[in-house]
């Protein structure tokens, strides 16, 4: 009978070792599953962040295009102002060219008539 009890004890010990191994494998699998689920949730958040970034990039691209248009319009306005200034300068030069001989003529007439 002692021999049978010894065999039963050894069988129970082997069974306990197998149960412990299976429990360890189960804990490892649960840990792996949790890590996988956590990574999945993290990826969802990353995708959300990427979507937000994509929206911001599109807005920046729109703003950039508007700025380019604004700069071009401003440069065109400066060109118009420069053309207007050139026209005024030419007009004043033309007036100067007309008035200077008149002033010289009036000066000559005034001297001739005896004015200082």
What does this structure look like?
96% of the residues lie in helices and 0% in strands. The protein has one helix at residues 2-112. The longest helix is centred in the middle third of the chain and has 111 residues, at 2-112. With 116 residues, the protein is mainly α. It is built from one helix and no strands. The model has no long low-confidence stretch (mean pLDDT 86). It starts with a helix and ends with a helix. The chain has one domain (1-90).
List its traits.
single chain, 116 residues, mainly alpha, 96% helix, 0% strand, rod-shaped
SSE inventory with pairings:
Layout: H1 2-112
Q: How would you briefly describe this protein structure?
A:
The protein has one helix at residues 2-112.
Order of helices and strands: H
Distance between the termini: 157 Å
Q: What profile does the largest beta sheet have?
A: none
Proportion of residues in β-strands: under 5%
Let me know the number of strands.
0
Number of domains as seen in the coordinates: 1
Look at the helices and sheets and give the structural class. Answer: mainly alpha
Radius of gyration using CA atoms only: 49 Å
Shape: rod-shaped
Mean model confidence by pLDDT: 86
Give the helix level as a range of percent.
Answer: over 70%
Uncertain segments are: none
Count of runs of 4 or more consecutive helical residues: 1
